[in-house]
Specification:
Strand content: under 5%
Structural class: mainly alpha
Number of helices: 4
Number of strands: 0
Shape: elongated
Radius of gyration: 23 Å
Length: 142
Amino acid sequence: MSNEAYLQISYFVAAGAGVVAAVVTALVLRRANREATEAPTAAAWAGRLLRRGLPVWLILAALLGFMSISYFDCQHDTYNKVVGDRGHLVRVTEAQSSAMAHYLAYALLGYGLVLMIFLWARARSIAGKPRFSPSPRRRRLV
């Protein structure tokens, strides 16, 4: 297989693998995500947005991780130099896979943070507590 064919195949296979990993992650988390975001509260639209946004969020994260790695560097500044070095192509493909995994992990952490805030707000609204209540110990200086 020529280096140019390897470049084309590895490029699309790596991108496809990242998207498949994001979709599988969303499918694995689908049930838990649905149970966490379904609620008969005033913020039902936010739960639907979170449920429907998870797969899109993860796919975008994988693609951003994939696109964050460039084939060009100081030693490979032209297309012919990039295609001429098979070791460089392998290293870049590995770096793209690693970046996609990192971006997926960061996207899951960010989604978890948003979900935590959503669940906290929902718990406070179900408990009937006001969203922001002043402390009773606070004195006014007039």
